[in-house]
Amino acid sequence: MKIIRPVTEEERKTWPKEVIVALERPFVDGRGQIQPLVDLAMESCVLIESKKGSVRANHYHRSDWHFCYVLSGSIEYLHRPHGSSAKPAKVVVNEGQLFFTPPMVDHAMVFPQDTTFLVLGRNSRSQEVYEADVVRIASLNE
To answer: Are 127 and 117 in contact (CB under 8 A)?
Structure first.
């Protein structure tokens, strides 16, 4: 089994402070452009397609974080600190936006339209590692 790295205070200092992450300016020349997304050590990148009306997540991660970049569509992202009984905050993330979920944050994603997005994660996405780190919770979107 792969060992999940513990989260350090030094690592926490590198995380975005807000859900929506401002993108750096792209590198542009005659060939086109390169848009920087994430420049942190990570172990996984997955492409997810979600159908209109579907819901994902309704969980938190013990140590994993993820940046999500919306390629097409939009996501209604619900989040709150784990252990809180407050109503989750909702942020609408649109095509071309990047957002961040740190560890120990309850979160859910609702898809008001067909949506494709990239997930760039700290930990491996192997099923064994993912299941050791994720904790499912009651639905945030009800």
So the answer is: no
What's the full length of the chain, in residues?
Answer: 142
Q: How far is CA 114 from CA 47, 101, 107, in A?
A: 14, 21, 19
Pairing of strands 115-121, 27-29: unpaired
Question: What is the spatial distance between Cα 12 and Cα 108, in angstroms, rounded to a whole number?
Answer: 22
pLDDT digits (tens, 9 = 90+) for 56-93: 999 999 999 999 999 999 999 999 999 999 999 999 99
Residues 6+ apart with CB under 8 A from 37: 23, 67, 69, 98, 118, 120
- Which pair of structure tokens corresponds to residue 89? 């905050």
Considering the domain 40-136, what is its CATH architecture?
Sandwich (2.60)
pTM score above 0.90: yes
**SS3 at position 12:** helix
